[in-house]
Specification:
Shape of chain A: globular
Structural class of chain A: alpha+beta
Low-confidence stretches of chain A: 274-280, 377-394
Order of helices and strands of chain A: EEEHEEEEHHEEHHEHEHEEEEEEEH
Largest interface: A-B, 116 and 116 residues
Oligomer: homotetramer
CATH topology of chain A: Chorismate synthase, AroC fold
Amino acid sequence: MNGNRFGRLFQVTTYGESHGEAMGVTVSGCPAGVELDEDLIQRDLDRRKPGQSMITTSRGEPDEVTINSGVQDGYTTGTPVGMVIQNKDARSGKYEPYVTAPRPSHGDYTYSAKFGTRNWGGGGRSSARETVNWVAAGAVAKAVLDASDHDVAIKAHVNRIDDIEAPEVSFEQLLEHSEENDVRCADPETADRMQERIEEYQAEGDSIGGSIYFEARGVPRGLGAPRFDGVPARLGQAMMSIPATTAFEFGLGTGATEVTGKERNEDWEFDEGDHPETVSEAGDPVPVGNDHGGLQGGITTGEPIYGEVTWHAPTSIPKKQRTVDWETGEAKEIQVVGRHDPVLPPRAVPVVEAMLYVTVLDFMLLGGRINPDRIDDRPGEYDTDYHPSSPHNE
Amino acid sequence: MNGNRFGRLFQVTTYGESHGEAMGVTVSGCPAGVELDEDLIQRDLDRRKPGQSMITTSRGEPDEVTINSGVQDGYTTGTPVGMVIQNKDARSGKYEPYVTAPRPSHGDYTYSAKFGTRNWGGGGRSSARETVNWVAAGAVAKAVLDASDHDVAIKAHVNRIDDIEAPEVSFEQLLEHSEENDVRCADPETADRMQERIEEYQAEGDSIGGSIYFEARGVPRGLGAPRFDGVPARLGQAMMSIPATTAFEFGLGTGATEVTGKERNEDWEFDEGDHPETVSEAGDPVPVGNDHGGLQGGITTGEPIYGEVTWHAPTSIPKKQRTVDWETGEAKEIQVVGRHDPVLPPRAVPVVEAMLYVTVLDFMLLGGRINPDRIDDRPGEYDTDYHPSSPHNE
Amino acid sequence: MNGNRFGRLFQVTTYGESHGEAMGVTVSGCPAGVELDEDLIQRDLDRRKPGQSMITTSRGEPDEVTINSGVQDGYTTGTPVGMVIQNKDARSGKYEPYVTAPRPSHGDYTYSAKFGTRNWGGGGRSSARETVNWVAAGAVAKAVLDASDHDVAIKAHVNRIDDIEAPEVSFEQLLEHSEENDVRCADPETADRMQERIEEYQAEGDSIGGSIYFEARGVPRGLGAPRFDGVPARLGQAMMSIPATTAFEFGLGTGATEVTGKERNEDWEFDEGDHPETVSEAGDPVPVGNDHGGLQGGITTGEPIYGEVTWHAPTSIPKKQRTVDWETGEAKEIQVVGRHDPVLPPRAVPVVEAMLYVTVLDFMLLGGRINPDRIDDRPGEYDTDYHPSSPHNE
Amino acid sequence: MNGNRFGRLFQVTTYGESHGEAMGVTVSGCPAGVELDEDLIQRDLDRRKPGQSMITTSRGEPDEVTINSGVQDGYTTGTPVGMVIQNKDARSGKYEPYVTAPRPSHGDYTYSAKFGTRNWGGGGRSSARETVNWVAAGAVAKAVLDASDHDVAIKAHVNRIDDIEAPEVSFEQLLEHSEENDVRCADPETADRMQERIEEYQAEGDSIGGSIYFEARGVPRGLGAPRFDGVPARLGQAMMSIPATTAFEFGLGTGATEVTGKERNEDWEFDEGDHPETVSEAGDPVPVGNDHGGLQGGITTGEPIYGEVTWHAPTSIPKKQRTVDWETGEAKEIQVVGRHDPVLPPRAVPVVEAMLYVTVLDFMLLGGRINPDRIDDRPGEYDTDYHPSSPHNE
């Protein structure tokens, strides 16, 4: 409604500005009994952290998370998980020239037009710093999925920078290679070329766009609530919430325009045993192929869900640009200084994964596949063997 | 949540299956005082109606809407507008072979996997017939916008079928030409080529994909609630709810990967008078160019909002295909008969427009630009000059 | 948000005015596989229907429901259940004098103040006629509960009219006697006295207040999401939505002010076998007594949930009263004619029960006790033995 | 949905357990331009704080709030206000005996039944400590209302303890006297008697129930969205969310049963000038009397909104009681030690007021009476005179 909450049963509520006191995220709807601690969340925050390589901003944020509630003796209690990440390395001074003279193509003007004011330090709430909250929430969602009976695996990598496109990679390659290089491209050779290209633009004081390929495996079939809460619709909302995104695709994506029905339609055959959910003797219908991206009629087929998200080039570049000052009424030249990324997808990989974890878990809760109250038993069955956290157990 | 509602303050709730008794839509949150009647809604329904040309299904639905509530003496009363459209030409018999043997790439299997059953006639609730409800709701939203002080204009056209792409068209061309041909492409020459191509596929018993370009003008700046309710996120959800869509883009879309920051960034200059909202002497900052698609930081800049949506080829084709019957345990050959569209975008134009109307109005209500209770005066001011509908006025 | 929707996972959306074309209700979130038809819903509508006795309005509405969607071959399909009830006996003429001169203590003035207009015939949307939609939705909720593995029983009766109070009755008495008399009081002797009293007021052209006692048995323990979605909070919202209600209580209610902690606190003992959910050898803790009304910390204990709702006297009375005409600027005398109830609780009994069914089911879905997609198997397990409705099965 | 969020446009999301690290609250939907700092919030927190008198718990919590976001240079920015209150004086040791043996009539058993575990220290999330978050949110809502063009005043006091009932008091008395004594009763003589009675129970190791009367003045007419979002329904939800409440009433409340229509109905007359909103020459209809409690048809009439909320006696009492241990399978005797309140309403007065502020503001935002984005100008008008916070202004 007012932009600071995502999710239906698994609800993520966030606050924070780039140069404010702290970032904060409340995860409500996390089942009890899930192993969770700050280290586990920290691992994902570290992957998103600024300053991790030459092609990211040099802002020095440790991004250390504190869990204020919802966890006891290393396990969630079913009550909201409140987390805070202090902002440590804010240097607002550099942003003073832009207070009344908006930086080109940033959110400066629109935030001021909406609110009549804005927190101008570091872009305030329009900054991608906000996504630190999302990654923390995604780590919680991942912990829930890992603790469940399901075997969901999610991974993303950078598949395009400028006109350099990665070849198709297997899910195993994704898992194995995408975190090995600074670009986060699972094809090492392409990663090198991308890195080189990014450095060229960086050297020119310019920036460049790119895209991310994502894949989710093990998401049970039958999830998604058409017509307005289908998986494509909610994934679309999730991905288009990420700052600087301009496109969301799944399955054949924009390429679907040139594919005929005969080419794209996939016959059904009986599952021959490699689909873990099959329990009938006859087997279950499985599609021959996955041009449908794991989704038919807005509902999961059990096949891998995959797609792409596009980012435009970062708007903070040292090039001289022109703006106007609405206080003085004068046009002026500005140069955006500060510590900025020359390209967005490499640091956005954990953000895309986080939004996938949150969205997939939310659908699994809505579809009754995970007990919304506690992870350790099934809905409908009552567990008299309570497991309250006890000081005597230690 | 469970898929049958869209919108936050302007809420659209729908029901209905392709071969069920009737389709129904409840529009809640429509301000009072808006001129509305069945004829006005019918005009848009007729644009979506089946059987309107050689390249649409021949199903003979009159699609006549009945307003059951919320309107009195030709004006809305602020209470929910309940509408019903009877299904008249349902012929379920043809769908019997698919009851336990899913059609390739339809929603047959996933609906059954989710619900353990499904309304199989004509695709039941997974059918695009549902969008008749959306067009009715969009017509109500359009009526509200038209009655407001704002001057919002929305139009879409088919800009790509297979590999045939329309040249860039002006908004005026869109308004003037897109309804002139069966393809709904605003460039007449391209429309002819598209029509020909579609007929070729149709003759081969095949179908083809395509895309729609949309544009919204006059949407006030300052709308959209980042980070999760930004305009791109909610538009993305809206468009990815439309059946058979595979991609949503705005601004440069997927093309943004190859554009550098220097190329894409747009300087600010002072408005020189052609932006209606400017009231200060100094003028207001306006961007030089619109690669940003009217949206910065998820909030409207006041520039036109534009983008594209992609559809895959229709899955109902007369080609012989293979499926399995989960009741008999046998594989079998099927041939999808029935009355179907060889391409989706032409009939989806009014659907895209409807989702835009609903989404834009919702943001205008959320942003306080339109009185949520009544259209005839401004919030905060009390109008003692009541205008209740009176029998003595007639 | 805008008043026409109730429920979280089990969502009820309504429309309709007293003298409009039709009333309508969409039930979204009803699991598939539930036996449901119009007769079943009609049985509850008939209990709420006007004209059923001397102490109800004589308006002649048959209140016949049509199911437009969501049901196939007598079972729900998981898609929304759309229902319509035509208005047949609207006589708006009598309401003309009140178009610009509000009836005392009705919603006439406030609806006009809010919307700048209103549907004035029969009170329009402010009329209790709206509750016909709620009773239809409640019947669907009841059908879902009946089809589930749970054994929920809900019943209400009129326990107070004026200063006549019914003695405490057992749940069995409630079930057996509350529908036996026109007052719907489960104590026959009290019912007679209430009936007499009501007729006295009716004869004087006056009306009187009263209250309803409700009880829900078999609601599983552990339901309710504190702090803002606890069962008391959501029941409170449900009951205070019913027209003309002025108080909601549960457990000791307002009487709790005079009870000490020692008196009210209830020891825990081991369940000795009469609580069906107990499966452990040790037994389960059960409270000795039920002053807590089945709810502790906002969550169900498994004990019966009970409480009371109060109605003020109907405001439509034939007495001469004074009002002002905002069009003419003149004060004037009016006399509310029409067909009205001299007391509200008797006809409100099915409405209270409906709101209980809807609220309880919603909590059971939220708590994972009922599969949100289908009633016939458990979440987490995949049923390959599909039961699609088949013409060949008949 | 899952209990940790309240409000529609003005959204309050909370976390925290009694003996956890910290309590936290995120206020989303707070317009920009509202003067706000920690001192202002602290003033209300201090009124709710433990240890403020002899009749409250002696737990030593300073309850100091930190604002982490949403405020810049003393004014809100329109982005979410994130607040944290550290827990300082948690002594969990005393609660160890209850880990597997629930305290009578607390939330111990139900939380464990729901989640399979619970944070047992100090009652965890079921503790009334949570309401510190609500009071902080209420202070923000009050600041917004104070900064608006409206003149809303809200006050509550304790009107009943045991069988001691305060006489009717004027709103001026409420404002003047209710904070003068520890009981928070606006009638000093009654307050003394209540204080004495509470101390008697306290001395006996017992506790007692009571109730609060609340009143809201200056709430504009025409607010509230029937049928499910009427003001009574949402106030009912708000008040029944407060821990240990058992009844909500407005207007005549439970007393309405014995009042006839003739007695309760209120004639309309023309406003003679004391209603600030009247602008027509003829004046506006105003009701003669306010038995309706400011609400007709679920919508505000502009008259004062008033009602009552009832609390049962605190359940934490030093009396010996019996419980069972579900781990050992043994019954046992327990005695609840700790620092507890002998009566709840005195400390609940700021909580009731907070929930009123939040609910009233939410309705004003929904009704378009306050600009949802910023307080300093009206919706629909664009203010080019930006007021961004500037370092040069200082």
